[in-house]
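agent> fetching stored inputs for the pyridoxal-5'-phosphate docking request
agent> found them:
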Amino acid sequence: MSYVSHLECSACHKHYPTGQPHNLCECGGPLLVRYRLDRIRVEFPRERLAALPRTMWRYAPLLPVGNPGNVVSLGEGGTPSIHAERLGKSMSVGNLWVKDEGLNPTGSFKARGLSCAVSMCRELGLRKLAIPSAGNAAGALAAYAAAAGLESHIFMPIDVPQANLVECRAFGATVTLVNGLIGDCARMVAERGKSEGWFDVSTLKEPYRIEGKKTMGLEVAEQFEWDLPEAIFYPAGGGVGLIGMWKAFEEMEQLGWIGARRPKMIAVQAAGCAPIVRAFERGDTKSEVWHDAHTIAAGLRVPKALGDFLMLEAIRASDGTAVAVSDAEMLDAGAELASTEGIFAAPEGAGCIAAARRLFAGGFLKPSDRVVLFNTGSGYKYLEAWSTRFPRHAASEQDKLGGLITPR
Ligand SMILES: Cc1ncc(COP(=O)(O)O)c(C=O)c1O
Ligand SMILES: [Zn+2]
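agent> prediction call returned; pasting tokens
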């Protein structure tokens, strides 16, 4: 049994029934899951959470899966919010927290979205799943599809981080490397999907990945004892985490779990691909395609996000902002985070530290504000990027295989 009442288009508000596969609304808008919150409010008070396991599935009443037997879980969610005291001191602030999503299965927060989406694919009887991805979503889909015994078809840019290519192949996915960016990958999935019988699990083109991602917002609320922090920094590509957390806050307010106050939602992008920052600064409701996108933060190389209007809405409604940081700033900040706090971040997450430093210094945030920085992925998945800071000059691992005699 699930508490889902229907799906609703985020653009034109048309309703769709549950229980069958859906991609976008006929108007092209992303569909969002709506729940019978009045019933959850009565039947699932937040005190019930205390006894539940520390994965994102502890919030099952606010997730779309009807039959618990369909849940595909590798232990996603339940990541710590770590008080970054030493790093905070270097910014003269006392309440800096890092939500470390690098500790998820497959080393990124994409695990949450794909655990939920693949579970729903299983529930709806979909067996062949396809995804265009900047890298980490591909790895996560490949892992969860493997765990569910489903096919995964992956389309990634040719220069995706090595870890993403290797993990997808190891998980048994069919991988196509595309000479282009994520938009080009998306076009290939759309073109071939129908004849191949693939279900398209692209960002926001199906309604369930965002439901998994929204659990980050539920966890922040629970970890801050239902009194949300003053600001949340999130490295935004497609923006699903940000939109998902915003949705979670609305649902929790209706459940009576939190009040009306919201954190400032702060989107962090790479200077080499910052369509949301540009749209925010111009006062636009949608973004324009960013040409010549380039950054080492692979997950932020998204020239045009389908949910741009939802991200911009949440940023503005929360009195937040959008900030672009350079690749050099990300690497500097990430090295500082690692050496002061013992957290080895993805460049995307490291960007949040650089952005926070700037917004504290400029007075946008008060030194006493409780601020959560999302490290969305593990630094271990970005060894090429980090090796530009910490190089070594040695041969490959190939010569160790089979116990060859050449000593190093
Ligand atoms: C590590 C990391 N951070 C952030 C993002 C951006 O995520 P979203 O599409 O939810 O904005 C990605 C997307 O690939 C990612 O892999
Ligand atoms: Zn619509």
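agent> quick read of the result: The mean pLDDT is 96.
agent> awaiting further instructions
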